[in-house]
Model the fold of this input.
Amino acid sequence: MTTSTLVSAKGGAGTQRRPLRNFIDGEFVDGGLPFEIRNPATGAVHAVAYEADATMIDSAVAAGRRCVDGEWGQMPLVRRRALLAQVAARIEERFDEFLEAEIADTGKPRSMAAHLDIPRGAANFRIFADFIASLPDEAFEMDTPDGGRAINYSVRKPLGVVGVISPWNLPLLLMTWKVAPAMACGNAVVVKPSEETPSTTTLLAEVMNEVGIPAGAFNVVHGFGPGSAGEMITSHPGIRAITFTGETRTGAAIMRSAAATTKALSFELGGKNPAIVFADADFDAAVAGLARAAFLNTGQVCLAPERIYVERPIFDRFVAAMKEKAEALRPGLPDADGTDLGPLISEEHRQKVLEYYRLAIEEGATLVTGGGVPALEGLAAGGYFVEPTIWTGLPQNARVTREEIFGPCCHIAPFDSEEEAIGLANDTDYGLASSVWTRDLSRAHRVGRAMNVGISWVNSWFLRDLRTAFGGAKQSGFGREGGAHSIAFYSEITNICIKV
Ligand code: NAD
Done:
């Protein structure tokens, strides 16, 4: 067996290009067309991945099937759980390598990746290894027509081979959020990480071998969407389910492709998330919470509020306070002193965000702050940075207030009544998350419940108990993952009915 060597890479110019090969049936395999991976903080190429072809996808699916039918699927739960806990422990042991790989792919500030991406990536394995042991199965006793009794009980079995297609914004965290419960349920996975951020998924393949996960249970195929590894997974007859996080229109394409083989689908898609700030809210907490929410990860968080509605008496003060927070953010290299704002993921994405910055003005916005590209020197001058940006004054039907931008920006609008705020917040095709700020307990419950979203926060944002349901309403997705919801999605349930 060969292994890839992921050497430490700070992502600067002249850094060695790491080879990121496909991982199939427990081995890194050669072959596939190479494509370059850039560090978005500098624009420098730091790795080369190899696009999997149809033969590799077939091999990965076949290996997965053998593993589900064999050692992995048949393994006693106690042993499978122990192995997944070891995956978590090994990620923690190789923490610095995961950190360097994630920073090189995303350019995000080291502090963020160190506190969120890598620890949560490891935690996903530990949590689902624990959780699956404590989940009750269903049992129902019933009367029978002949006056006797029957008992029903359900058992959970693996679905088979699960395709995992993940995005670039929180690469390790969002990928393991799917891989960990899928594997805990005894499935094999074929993972296609985003073509922008394949490094930590490749490193995870090494970890799987190191702790003794059976060959074929975890496979990694690199590549793109249409006509590439992504589409090949979604149309493959040997794959029983697709779990996908990404854009809504990609979800629509995957649905079409998966329809012919009637795969189970779980989709976590885009959002245009609202926040509502009432005049009675803890003002400083609301400003701090929503500035973090709007600008964390340079706004590249699916849950970020791009629409903030503020009760009129505190509107001007709130806008001024948010402006101050935005202007205090320091863009720069992941390791530079004081950096708290990373780049966008790619030049292409920067062009998309800048197009919205331009459009906002065309649509009549008042620019409160930002709107352009910061002047940076040194290596960061080649990075894909944009300024944190705030607008006011747009109508509810502007494209900038309706379409997901996925950048460090938000629009702030005033409201006069609770009813109006609820109406404005829910006036969207999306329904992922919301954040309501108030000190009034009854209103907190009332408005929190009135949000047509999958995740409704009150006086908080991004607070996650991994046992709770996570997913989107409307065009933000369908199905829920998290805790028992994940276990339900990744299991085939057989009801056994016994006449006694
Ligand atoms: P994307 O849809 O462009 O890509 C996601 C993944 O899908 C990538 O691996 C890509 O290669 C693959 N892909 C693209 N086209 C495909 C196709 N036709 N068939 C199969 N696979 C295909 O999304 P992105 O730009 O990587 O991520 C940003 C988006 O993800 C935003 O819309 C964001 O809101 C969303 N997102 C949602 C959540 C959530 O939990 N709801 C979390 C994070 C990101």
Notes: Residues 165-169, 174, 192, 194-195, 224-226, 230-231, 234, 245-247, 250, 253-254, 268-271, 302, 404, 406, 432, 472, 476-477 surround nicotinamide-adenine-dinucleotide (CB under 6 Å). The longest strand covers residues 149-158.
